[in-house]
Amino acid sequence: MVVTLLQTWTWVVVAIMVVYAFRHWRFTWNRISARQRPYYQDLLDSELPPVSIIVPMHNEAAVAKKLLDSLVDSNYPRELLDVIPVDDQSGDATPALVYEYAQQYSFIQPIYNLQGERGKAAALNRALSLAKNEIVLVFDADYTPGRDLVRELAMAFIDPEVGAVMGRVVPRNNAVNLLTRLLSLERSGGYQVDQQARYNLDLFPQYGGTVGGFRRSVVMEMGGFDALTLAEDTDLTVRLFINGWRVLYANRAECYEEVPENWNARFTQLRRWARGHNRAFFVHIVPLMLSKKLSLVQKIDGALLLFIYTVPPILLSGIVVNALLFYMGAIPVIPGIIFAFFVVAYNAFGNFAPVFEVGAAELLDGARERLLLLPYLFYLFLFNSWAVTTGAIDALGDFIKTRRANWDKTKRAGAADAAR
Amino acid sequence: MLLVSLVLFLLVLSLPAIPSMFEVRKPKDDGRLHIMEQYVRDPRWFGRSFRHKLAPFVSEARGNSYGRAELRMRTDEEVRWSPDLEIPALERLRGIGVGERVVVGHGAGIRDAYALERLDVQDDVVARTLTSDATMHIGRAVQILRWIDADGDIEIDSDSDLGLSASGGARVTLGERVHFERVWGAPVASHTSHREPFELDRHKATILDTEAMGGKRSIVVYGPVHVKAGTNIPEHLKVHGPVSIEPGVTIGGNLISRGDVTLAEGVTIGGHIFAEGNIRLGPRSRVSRDGVAKTVYGTGKVLIANDVEVYGWVVSEDGGNTL
Amino acid sequence: MSTRASEPNVSKPTPSKLPSNRGLREIITPHRSYRRLPVTSTGALTTIPAVIVVEIAVILCAQKALDLMSWFASLVAANEHIATRPFPDPFLFVTTRPMTFAMRHSDWIELCAVIVICVLAVLALSIWTKIAAPVRFFINLNLLLIAGAALYLLLVGRLGYDSAAFSTLMLRTALFTWLIMPIFVGLFASLFPFTLWQRLLFIVITVAYDVPLSIVRYALFVAILGKTSSIAMTDLYLVFGPLLDAIPIICFFSLFLVQVARSLEERRAVWGWL
Q: Which pLDDT does position A416 carry in this prediction?
């Protein structure tokens, strides 16, 4: 009986992996060979809409100057821009830096949160209540938007169905060490192939919380950002789709970001993402499946998207179950082989594209020798799985106890550079 | 033997991974993806950058009866100045010709011509680029290999091919059977003999009229849509499928289609037209208005009948034509 | 007075053909966000005959490969003075020759010691972070599997697999791996602009390479288990078994992709637009 149950579980795990393998294979095929769905960046408009730009900041003195300089340098008409840096109880020179810019540029109007609720969702809510414009873009402080990026993102909202837009994030510090190089591969796979394919197929491209934007009125109508969540981006994406809005993905709207440079920072980041994402799964899976605004295919893909950070713990359970079955002399050979192959191909789900998706993305990006790093993605498997699993456990605890998660910010590499 | 098999095992396992290990130890390809952060979309970029490169030569040569220089463009190019530059018929001119007034004779072949005042290109000319700080006239069956740009009006006769980009600071008038990819003008206008409205296919389409709008200002429809004559949509129309529009319809905002767009005739669009397919602009179609630039963008072909005016940009990824 | 452009060094009016602009899209490399790869459904479908050819080859050669596995393992065991007794095991379309071999019995003291050492090692690695996290996690996985096996042995007395069963398992796993691998690799190959020969070579190389890997691994496992006890069996199979077969696949995959990348660079015209 126990053996049968365990063997059945192995087949269940394999079935889940096969479903995701098919999904990502389909995405890769679509991105590589099908007609790509265009975005609106090539629409020129002399009646540009006014835009508010929110930049949540907590101890960002090392990196924020570059971002603010980029926004000052933007070709978007200043009279249509309203930049709102939100200082979220920083302990460094962030408030002073932001104040200095506000003195120099009237379109930069910061908010200082001295003692209220902390965290990105709370910061966004605070800024939203003061933002003047319908179109709101968000940048994290370590990003450096190009001159035309604000316009490229703002053009999404010429479409009456669009609730949010997401651009492409490109690591700036990819060459620092093996970790950053592998994260760069992951990002490529996730954006160049995965997001674009989901956009092509009219599925669930995801708003990622930075290098993106949304309609202020829509978000306010939905009650603003959920302060309980650590993944306000996933939460917003799902709520938008459930309510009949669309999220566009702008592959051409690229922006540099900073990826974690050490394993601790990466673990913290992944754990936070998993915690927030899984909470979104618990909260939204039923409303998603019941939504009358989505097709069946969209619901299925949305469910797969929400479920994706639950898969690594399931994978780890597969390893445990296989171990138990081996101890008992009852390991099923064929699912074991399939399981093993897919594990190596995947480096553990989440936003982590499988190897063939990453390979396709890198080819499209014009890569060459960096393709040789693909085997190293497997190196991340256990690390990613464990980080996501701890986050999933946190999320379960949050959901059951309705507890508030504390915002554990990713440490900026720029801070280390500044300290040197 | 245990040790031998261990070594063999490690060797066999690591052999295919050796190139990967080398790439980690001595990276050959670890540069970041290049993002052109200073890049700004400018429909007149070709003309602007060309003028900027030639400005020193022009300011020095101007006022002289003749001038020559070598300029570093993508390759070294010879630049010639003459106040009234005339390239004879059937002549082939290497390099860049610059003048106050430039005339390119019938059947001539030139690389680049730049006029500070009027540029007149006669029939059957092949040119790489044409630039004018004032007006430009392009004759019949002219083939442009790259782009044209003028600060003033541009008039293009029939059967010409405008290359990658045609841009003007004022009116750009396209004759019959003119082929283009991107055209920018205030407005882009057409003057052809195709005066009949386009035929519309309303097979299985949702019929949209003022009553069906139900007082909404914007509307999103799934599936093909046929808009009845005289309908007024105050803001935007988005269609997840092809859309056909009868005469006299007004859309105040943007028209977005996941398929083809056909405007029969006399349709007015206040905003952009964006189609994941072909666009057919029937006679007397109007997009935007004087002083306000919008874009007509089709991933397929853009076909333009007579007396169409688009204030702004017309972009056809698959190549557009006047009829 | 107009000055004609026909200065001394202007070419004579013999019309030379200026290039057409029709091929502009072929010489302008599209931005990466607009690109597609030159793959077609027809090209991808050629993977199917390639997979079939390799499957046939596997079926024809499997018996020899499995015999080699058994032979090399026996050789290594004999050299290590491990007594073995092979026996025939008809399975599917082959007859494998697994073997029984002696494994030392671990008493409860040894098992407890293994458990304690593994747990302490895991704790130590959790604290000593000089080693990169992925490496530590991998070591911990192995330690936990070994500790789990020791605990199971302590509680139950014996593992579900004895040497004969383990040997049978290894050989059958190898066979299934060679049968499944072409399909798995074919899924990868179908997505990319390989030529038919590249597809075939990719599938053949990955499957063929797994044969010597399986041969050497099996012999090594028999030697290790024969020299120690069954404690390490689970770890050897789960971590260094089928999981390891997939790694050369990815390595070869990356090598072939680099070739594709080089050819795309040389033939810019192949990029699709939007």
A: 41
Mutation pick from C41, C168, C243, C247 vs chain A, by most beta carbons of A within 10 Å, is C243
Q: What is the pLDDT of residue C3?
A: 34
Domains of chain A, by residue range, sit at 1-40+159-420
Asked whether residue A12 carries a pLDDT value surpassing 60, the answer given is yes
Give the residue on C whose Cα is nearest the Cα of B90: C13
Nearest to B1 among C6, C223, C274 (CB): C223
- Region of residue B63 (left: phi > 0; alpha: psi -120 to 50; beta: else): left
Query: What percent of chain B clears pLDDT 90, i.e. is strictly above it?
Result: 78
Asked if B44 reaches chain C (Cβ–Cβ under 8 Å), the answer is no
> Could you give the CA distance from residue A394 to residue A392 in angstroms, rounded to a whole number?
5
Q: Where are the alpha helices (H) located in A212-332, listed in sequence order? A: 216-221, 232-242, 263-290, 296-307, 311-327
Strands (E), A108-260: 111-113, 135-138, 144-145, 162-171, 212-215, 246-257
CB count, 10 Å around CB of A296?
8
Find chain B residues with C-beta within 8 A of A42's C-beta. Answer: 41, 295, 297, 315
pLDDT per residue over C102-158, tens digit each? 888 888 899 999 999 999 999 999 888 888 899 999 999 999 999 999 999 999 988
Assess whether the previous peptide bond of C38 is cis (omega < 30° from 0). Answer: no
B132 Cβ contact partners less than 8 Å away, ≥ 6 residues apart: B102, B114, B115, B116, B117, B118, B119, B149, B150, B151, B152, B154
User: What ipTM was predicted for this assembly?
Assistant: 0.91
Residue of B nearest to A370 (CA): B29
Residues belonging to chain B: 323
A70 touches chain B (CB under 8 A): yes
**Which pLDDT belongs to residue B75?**
76
Please give the Cα distance from A371 to A176 (Å, whole number). Answer: 17
pLDDT in the model for residue B178? 96
Does residue C114 or residue B72 have the better pLDDT?
C114
B143 in contact with C, Cβ within 8 Å: yes
Distance CA A242, CA A287 (A): 7
Q: Count CB atoms within 10 A of the CB of residue C41.
A: 9
pLDDT for the residue numbered C7: 36
pTM of the model: 0.91
Helix axes C163-189, C196-227, angle to 10 degrees: 160
Contacts of A4 (CB under 8 A, 6+ apart): none
Judging contacts by C-beta atoms under 8 Å, the chain A residues touching residue C185 are: none
Mean pLDDT score across all residues of chain A: 90
SS (H, E, C) B214-240: CCCCCEEEECCEEECCCCEECCCEEEE
Which residue, among C35, C180, C185, C259, would best test binding to A if mutated, counting the most A CBs under 10 Å from its CB?
A: C35
Percent of chain A with pLDDT over 70: 93
Of A34, A267, A365, the CB nearest to C133: A267
In C, residues 50-79, which contact B (CB 8 Å cutoff)?
75-76, 79
**Residues of B whose CB is below 8 A from C75:** 1
CB contact under 8 A, C5 and B5: no
On the question of pLDDT at A136 being above 90, the answer is yes
Neighbours of A110 (CB within 10 A): 19
C212 contacts in B (CB within 8 Å)? 12
d(CA C232, CA B172): 80
Which of A43, A75, A363 has the most B C-beta neighbours within 10 Å, making it the best mutation to test the interface with B? A43
